[in-house]
Design goal:
Length: 490
């Protein structure tokens, strides 16, 4: 099979930037090395891009540090206007950006478009926030003296992003950082760097001053990131990715007492009570489980369903999920693309094999799809043993384990029985139960009678080992601002 299947795909890949973006210039990696970007639907190389060295990463931080000297005072209105122009350009080019995202990441075009809208919304939202950075003024409690506070941009930032949402995981950091007057180095995941490189070109076209955004791509993230994290010029790191890598980066960040945001893994419980609208719960489950093929930190990892409705829910979900068309994301009507790579597919397969070996029943799916690419069948499992690994590990694939419960207390205890705490979903039509359960769940976010929480104007983030810090909404802006207090002797 050819690496690309149509002329439109080839034209797009020819046009996308493949170099590093440092100090406003596109350049090859020092030493000239490149790394391949693969189409997960075929396993073929799409393009080669620059493979940055430690020196390149240091040059990117130097550029961000230099640019901060002026960008911190760049007029807020103009910072907002740059974001707004970039928003407009993203929306205008949605079709090309969606195709590019599908080629490198695999998700269906319709899902790539949904991500692009979501990603662009962070730029529109923070375009509006750039001119609303306020301090406060108050009279000391003694009556003598005054309290003045001001908000200032924190400084050069480092953003490390994952492959599952190649654009949105970048814009929800870049948007508030630009609005606040910060500069940055971005390192996208090696599997999906093309969307971020295309975004850098859009921000350049939108008039972002040189050096404010720098993008480095590399096959050796650990090696090129660690010197930056230990560099005193860096003032902020925001990481989205797995909890084990996040833990390592927190350790590195201790040296400079770096301000850090961590958007880490999840193990989202999806609770369905006996009083829920079961059809609405199925619709919510399809979104919470199958959006992004289950490769989302917010993906429902386990369905805890009241025993009186569990069998009916399982049948309905299996019928819907089993009908999903699996294929290359560029094909019509495909609802489930490939997983990102063989390692991810093997992990999903092992989790299903482990559950089945411990007694699980397969209602639909349960196997790899033969042929090229990393496809796995959408899967629904019941009769899950309490020691099945998929209850405690992040599945990151299209597998829905369904477990029954008998009491509300039991459901809450099961939901909280994890070191993660990103998001939970609750379906009930009983208002008092809804409040009780929402207050008892140990997560940063909850979808109440809905299967998705992502929203540019709302604070996204977790508790426990899902991390700390928030992205989106006014809370997302605070991550890039320092508060300075002036004690005034007046
Ligand atoms: P990952 O392996 O942790 O990688 C995330 C990013 O970190 C990539 O850019 C990766 O680069 C880089 N990286 C890996 N090792 C590093 C190191 N030693 N030093 C510096 N950077 C390093 O995670 P992933 O597999 O890409 O993404 C899936 C994970 O992200 C899941 O656990 C998911 O739950 C989580 N996630 C969380 C959120 C949230 O908001 N909470 C959102 C989306 C995803 P390379 O891959 O190029 O080496």
């Amino acid at each position: 099979m050819a690496a690309t299947e149509t002329q439109a795909e080839q034209t797009l890949l020819d046009a996308v930037p493949k170099q590093l973006f440092i100090g406003g210039a596109w350049r090859d990696a020092s030493g000239g090395a490149t790394l391949p970007v693969e189409d997960p639907a075929t396993g073929q190389t799409l393009v080669e891009i620059a493979d940055a060295t430690v020196d390149d990463a240091k040059a990117a931080l130097a550029a961000a540090d230099e640019a901060f000297k002026t960008f911190r005072n760049h007029p807020p209105r103009e910072r907002g206007d740059i974001l707004r122009r970039a928003y407009d350009l993203i929306i205008q080019r949605e079709d090309d950006l969606a195709l590019l995202m599908t080629l490198e990441m695999g998700k269906p075009i319709s899902e790539s478009k949904a991500e692009i809208t979501y990603a662009a919304n962070f730029f529109r939202w923070y375009a509006e926030e750039a001119v609303r950075i306020n301090g406060r003024f108050s009279v000391n409690e003694s009556g003598a003296g005054r309290v003045l506070t001001m908000k200032q941009p924190i400084g050069p930032c480092l953003f490390i992003t994952p492959w599952n949402f190649p654009l949105a995981m970048g814009t929800r950091k870049i948007g508030p950082a630009i609005a606040a007057g910060c500069t940055m180095v971005v390192k996208p995941a090696k599997q999906t760097p093309l969307s971020m490189l295309a975004l850098a070109a859009i921000l350049e076209e939108a008039g972002l001053p040189k050096g404010v955004l720098n993008v480095v791509t590399s096959h050796s993230s650990g090696e090129i990131m660690e010197p930056l994290i230990r560099d005193p010029r860096l003032r902020k790191m925001s990481f989205t990715g797995s909890t084990p890598v996040g833990r390592k980066l927190i350790e590195q960040s201790a040296e400079q007492v770096l301000k850090v945001s961590m958007e880490l893994g999840g193990n989202a419980p999806f609770l369905i009570f006996q009083d829920a609208d079961l059809d609405a719960a199925v619709e919510g489950a399809l979104i919470a489980k199958m959006r992004n093929g289950g490769e989302a930190c917010t993906s429902a990892n386990r369905f805890h369903v009241h025993e009186s409705v569990a069998a009916e829910f399982a049948q309905k979900l299996a019928a819907r999920i089993g009908a999903f068309k699996v294929g290359r994301g560029t094909e019509d009507d495909v609802k489930m693309g490939p997983l990102i790579d063989e390692a991810q597919r093997s992990k999903v397969a092992e989790l299903v094999e482990d559950a089945v070996a411990k007694g699980a029943s397969v209602l639909t799916g349960g196997s790899r799809v033969d042929g090229p690419g990393y496809f796995y069948e959408p899967t629904v499992l019941t009769d899950i043993s309490p020691d099945a690994d998929l209850l405690s590990e992040e599945i990151f694939g299209p597998v829905a384990p369904i477990i029954g419960f008998s009491t509300e207390e039991e459901a809450i205890a099961a939901a909280n029985d994890t070191e993660y705490g990103l998001v939970a979903y609750v379906f009930t039509n009983d208002l008092t139960r809804a409040f009780r359960v929402v207050e008892a769940l140990e997560t940063g976010m909850i979808g109440l009678n809905q299967g998705m929480v992502s929203n540019a104007g709302a604070p996204f983030g977790g508790v426990k080992q899902s991390g700390f810090g928030r992205e989106g909404g006014p809370e997302g802006m605070e991550e890039y601002l320092e508060t300075k207090y002036v004690a005034m002797n007046v």
